[in-house]
Hints:
A: 211 residues, 6-stranded parallel beta sheet, 9 helices, 46% helix, B: 234 residues, 5-stranded mixed beta sheet, elongated
Amino acid sequence: MKRSRVLLADDHVLILEGLRKILEPYHEVVGAVSDGRSLVDSALRLKPELIVLDVTMPFLTGVDAARQIHKRLPRTKLLFLTVHANPAYLREAWSAGATGYILKSSTREQILDAVTKALAGQTYISPGIVAEDFDLSRWRGGKGVESAAALTSREREILRTLAEGRTAKEAGAALGISHKTVAFHRNNVKRKLGVRKTVELIKRAIDEGLI
Amino acid sequence: MVKKRTSSSLKLRRQQHREIRALTTRLLTVQDEERRKLSRDLHDDFCQRLAALGFEVTLLEAEPMPDAIRRQLQGFQTRLADLSGAVRNLAYQLHPSILEDLGLVPSLRALCEEISHRNGMGVAFRTKNVPGTLSREIKSCVYRVTQEALGNASKHSGAEHANVVLRGTKEGVVLTIQDNGIGFDPQSAKRKGGLGLISMKERVRLVNGQISIQSESGRGSKIIVTAPCPGTNS
């Protein structure tokens, strides 16, 4: 069997270790990261065939990271591995371009099966989340989180970076973009949120639980 | 003299009333915050550790072992998955972390679908121009009011269906929940000390919003909540 290049993303070290042990005998684990922002960076650099990722992660959620990766690396398969059995999470993952969705309570065989299926471009959904004959295509490519008025995942990422106390220049360096791009997005976010000063912006970020 | 005493007694009562309301508001906020923290801990720590333990168990399955031990191991895994599910449910009861994970609209949609599925009352959910960013308090208020109102409608009103509409306006958001049940008399519900109605009102007051509860016996009920969030939709 051909060993495929797989990238792992989960903010829990124990999960990453367990997953690595399950996959390594059959696939090449090219990296393991623990937040959404590192995931996007590593994915763009390593261009893996498959990413196994969690839904909720710091800085940038798995869903937002998946959205960015799917746009830039449409051939990379995305398999969500999560504790959330609520179909609402599946819906968001699907709208972000997921190939599969598997629960962390699954057995080793189920995880390996989901990985094989995802690599072949086939759908794998853990049993019991939605009916077996449920048509997932209706959820594909949805706008995601809230509405047209929502912030883009890039804007949320920049907002979080600025809220960590960084200047536009420092945020640009951290995200690998120019400080002018940071300022552009920051101003867009200010306009969308109806605030004028960066300090008000940060306060909003805190109030809204973005950081 | 009597007039003076009445006036000062009225002042005192108003003051006491204000203090009680302030205390209720504070209680609600502290309770929400504590529950949120506890729920996060259960979810982010306990659930993930249980999942990691499940991984360890399932990894052992790849090793050669007698059938009896293998069966026992599979039993452990099932029990671990059940335990993980129970902890997750408890975390969800304490605080709907879905609000922070996915945002208000997907959370409300999931709530409406869950109530339709569980209680058999059809719930239609629509949104229009909902601002992408709302404060945690507003999200929590809208979610809890919807949960309470739909819970009441499905348990007590005999409603067959309900409509939930959330829309953004220049001033903020407006939530409307309407059902076709038997309705109720809001005044008598208030006198009976219905905690649901009180907590709805307090939650709305907490975000400086307004709530209108319109209901008549036999004609269903309609709850409208407006929550201000200046600038969000400009």
